[in-house]
Amino acid sequence: MQLKRLLVIPARGNSKRIKNKNFKNFKGKPIISYSINTAIKSKLFDHIIVSIDDVNKIKYLKKFKVKIDIRPKKYAKDHSTIEDVLRNIYYNYLNKNIRFKEVWSLTPCSPLIKTSDLIKASKLLKKNKNRIVLPVCEYSAPISWAFKRNKRNILYPLKKNAYKIRSQDLPKNYHDTGNFVCIPFTFFKKKKKIEFDKNYVGLKIPKIRSVDIDDLEDWKIAEAFYEKK
After folding, report:
1. How far apart are CA 12 and CA 28, in angstroms?
2. How far apart are CA 167 and CA 142, in angstroms?
3. Which residues are registered as beta bridge partners of 9?
4. pTM assigned to the model
5. Nearest Cα to Cα of residue 88 among 180, 193, 182
6. Chain Cα centroid distance, residue 215
7. Per residue in 131-179, pLDDT tens?
8. What is the pLDDT of residues 37-61, one digit of tens each?
9. Taking a C-beta distance cutoff of 8 angstroms, is the pair 109, 9 a contact?
10. Which residues contact 165 (CB under 8 A, 6 or more apart)?
11. How far apart are CA 135 and CA 130, in angstroms?
């Protein structure tokens, strides 16, 4: 059986900086509910899977039209990667003779991402069938102005005299927002991992929707942006 898109929302527990981050209340609702509802409303996905390692979350997740995957312990460790999780789920489906043309991941802490962002990403992937689509945002300041700091708090410019160059004369640089990723199935055809770094294409999204929630400060920024939205 050939299907179009598989979406995985990876919601492992034991977050270090924000306790129970993926299910913590954000503006009155568990934050993961925003990602789930955005994915459902987009109408892009044949299967939406929430990958968890905490069986106590199953009851809450059953409120939604999603499938629940109990993550194997070897993929629920601190150093486990999203790629490991996606590959495991992809091959589980493949063993059932179910194939997907695209494999997506959307983080559970992406309350600012809109359905329109996902739809734009799907169109970009259609135009770039052999590329991986990442949401990107422009750095607030030129990275050429960056400093490194030693133990004595002494600063050293990464690029000598770059601070003398006007920002408008420097190239623009972008970072992955970390909210989602869209991968063609060709990257999963072989069990051996493929070099990803040479195969990205970026979908630019506004800064107000690009917060990657990693700590409590990020959480507060996301809440402020959500209120503005």
Report:
1. 21
2. 6
3. 50
4. 0.92
5. 193
6. 16
7. 999 999 999 889 889 999 998 999 988 888 888 888 888 888 999 999 9
8. 999 999 999 999 999 999 999 999 9
9. no
10. 142, 144
11. 16
Predicted pLDDT of residue 86: 94
pLDDT tens across 72-113, in order? 888 888 788 899 999 999 999 999 999 999 999 999 999 999
Orientation of helix 115-127 relative to helix 32-42, angle to 10°: 60
At 200 the three-state DSSP class reads strand
- Work out the burial of residue 198: count CB atoms within 10 Å of its CB; fewer than 13 is exposed, 13-18 middle, 19 or more buried: exposed
Reading the block at residue 158, the tokens are 């990464």
161 or 66, greater pLDDT: 66
Contact criterion met (CB below 8 Å) for 209 and 114: yes
- How many residues does this entry show for the chain? 229
Residues 194-220 have a mean pLDDT of: 88
176, two tokens? 């992955």
Output DSSP code: residue 207: G
Classify residue 94 as exposed, middle or buried by CB count within 10 Å of its CB (0-12, 13-18, 19+). middle
Residue 196, pLDDT score? 67
Q: Locate 98 and state its tokens.
A: 């179910």
The pair phi, psi for residue 12, each rounded to 5°, is -65, 145
Kindly write down the DSSP assignment for every residue of 149-191, as one continuous string: E-TT--EEESSTTGGGS-GGGS---EEE-SSEEEEEGGGGSSS
First to last CA, the chain: 40
